[in-house]
Amino acid sequence: MTALMLVDMQNDFLHPEGAYARGGATSDLIAALPARLKPVADAARSSGAWIVSTHFTLVPGKNGEPFIDAHLKSLRPFLKAGDFTPGSFGHALIDELAPADLSAEKVAYSAFYMSRLEWMLNRAGIKRLVFGGIVTNGGVASTVRDAHVRGFDIDVLSDGCAAFDADVHNVSIEGLRSVARIITCDEAVKGFRS
Predict the structure, then answer these.
(1) Quick check: pTM over 0.85?
(2) Cα–Cα–Cα angle for 11, 12, 14, nearest 5°?
(3) Cα angle: 42, vertex 48, 49; to 5 degrees
(4) What residue ranges define each of the domains in the chain, with the CATH number in brackets?
(5) Considering just the CA atoms, what is the radius of gyration of the chain in Å?
(6) Residue-wise pLDDT tens digits, 6-56
(7) Which positions ≥6 away from 23 have C-beta within 8 Å?
């Protein structure tokens, strides 16, 4: 069984009213992804494959103040209470790609770290993962590498992932060739339709 893994395609990252847009952390490269990934998601659904979304999460503590790692706070000082909160608009998968069959909250780059993702994939009988999402050098690369050590068969969509910088994206994709097949969104659509 195959799953399309949508890494962190959340409103707080991508929507014009999300946390990153409010903070001025936008990217045309990332903004282009929903249109590229939608045909892949449609083909995956039509083929009976699973749609799995990962959700970067800021866990609220006392008075709703989120736990934010120091490195993230320095990179994204605009993050505040309510951003990436479970159950919120910002935390949700973007409408263009919804709904997901399974979703996993994540608190670090890898969606396998301290989550139930592996358990869900195993229960669903999923052996092959097709990755798209953001950012190539962060959540995508970390989750792909963790999937590799867990024995999953992996494809990474070279044009279905993005980073804030094209060179960083390209280097990251090249670095993943040792643990995954690199394919395009068009190739993935053809694969799901065959």
Answers:
(1) yes
(2) 60
(3) 75
(4) 2-53+93-193 (3.40.50.850)
(5) 16
(6) 999 999 999 999 999 999 999 999 999 999 999 999 999 999 999 999 999
(7) 76, 78, 79
